[in-house]
Amino acid sequence: MNINFDPLFHHNCADYNHKDFVCTVRSVKCDDESITVKENSNNISKITDTTNRYAHDIRVESFARVVTHYAKQTYQLSVDISWQLPPNNSTSLLLGFILEIEDSTFNQSCFYFDISNSHWNSNLIATVPRFHFASESLFEFDEAYDIKLISLSKRKNDTMILRKHIQMPHHPDYYNDTTTEHDCKRTSNLQASRWTGGFRRILVHPIARTIQVEFVGAPPHYCFEGYEVRLKDESGLELLHSAVVPVELMYMEYIGNQTILFGEYNFTNLEVDQYFMPSVIPIERSRDGRCLCPVLSTSPYDNRMVCSCIAADWHKVRIQ
């Protein structure tokens, strides 16, 4: 079950690095025939495909993120939908986009991206940012979705539709709820690259100049053999301290009907009056060299594939 986080989506889709680019998002009714977008009065259901390609390279990234709250642990499915515009003058003719999301039971949600107030110039067109739609509560684990992105132009009847079918990852407790077993000695979990960990608590001990981190490990079927805990600088770009915590040194707690894996590490002799950003990431390769976070690959021994786990960052802390 998803956590019901508010807001359902983020209303401001502007890019603060491009002041001339103005973008807002609002929810609209998919079957509302009164929906109009400036000069384009087509109803969503009546829009047809054309050869004019405006939005392209639509991607859907889903991540299972652990959320700990007091004595309870739940999982959140974070989904990011993004697309790109070509760096040519056709971009300046766009009024916006309609994003339509339909689940397997034909329930629909539609959102309108309004970019009609943008001030297009050659520099903005050449560096137009990638569009993102992020939600933490709209999607469900194990569900399939059909996604439609409609580009709306100032030119009458000039539209273009992109379609994407996506299957969301299993709930992290999937293997605990079924008889399915995962053999971590020979294979890798193909959904491990979508796991995002988290911290249970972070304690700062000023007198001892120590930061104690306690983080949450993934369920066993993700096959991780250890985690790297890090302290980065306040920008999050420079690594200052790090250590590896093997799974064998972590401990389990039973919370409700869940078995949760936790790890701890103490960073000692730290600098005073310096900001640190704690981070934790699974070790991406096993002791025998297998990739434990394969991306778009089914062979954990394929050296040509992308092997990448996801880091979870905490807000910056300081020893005073």
Automatic annotation (TrEMBL):
The keyword Membrane applies. It is found in: Cell membrane. Residues 193-316 form the ILCR1 Ig-like domain. This is H_lectin domain-containing protein. GO terms for cellular component: plasma membrane. Keywords: Cell membrane, Membrane. It comes from the Eukaryota. The keyword Cell membrane applies. InterPro entries: Ig_ILCR1, IL17RA/B_FnIII-like_1_sf. It comes from Onchocerca ochengi. It is a single-pass type I membrane protein.
